[in-house]
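Friendly challenge for the regulars: who can give me the structure tokens for this chain first? No prize, just bragging rights.
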Amino acid sequence: MFASLKTIDSAFQQVKTLAIIFIIAVLLLAGAIAYFAFQSTTAAANRIYVLEGGQLLTAGAQDARANRPVEARSHVTRFHELFFTLDPDQKAIDLNVNKALYLADNSAKKQYENFKEKGFYNDLIAANISLEMTVDSVIIGNARPLTARCFGHQRVIRATSITNRNFISDCTLRDVTRSENNPHGFLMENWRVVQNKDLNTLQR
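First reply, four minutes later:
Bragging rights claimed.
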């Protein structure tokens, strides 16, 4: 009789062990299914389907904040190219400068008014001088508010010579609403020219 009870107890222990193993296996399987289902749902949420010309195209969704440093560099580059690339034509100057002023605060407007008061633009037109700004690099800081330092060079093209200048400027960047005039959604604040000195002059 005792032998029979031991056999029953042993069988019960085996069944209990198998039941525990089975429950753990089911929980692990359920966890794995839930994980892969979540991954698939996330991947599907980041996929956008676009119908173009009768064809279904796939486009990926991305967090807009991931591209902000790239957009910041493009914003700063565009401002400097517009503000400092000038031809001896009043309409062309006004067009470029007005586009640039949408991208910056009053610090840029003050510089523009300072140039006007000194007759800078009139001198360009009278002497048929063209200015070309090339931005070499823009360094964006990691902290908020974002800071930007622009490195570039400028060519002053006269009838008889070309002067090359080294150019450096600083500013901070504030997030604003995107618009047609400001597609990157940044506003340059406290902009100042740190360095703008002649490097060399070549005769034409």
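The two ends are 118 Å apart (CA to CA). The chain is about 45% helix and 35% strand. Your move, everyone else.
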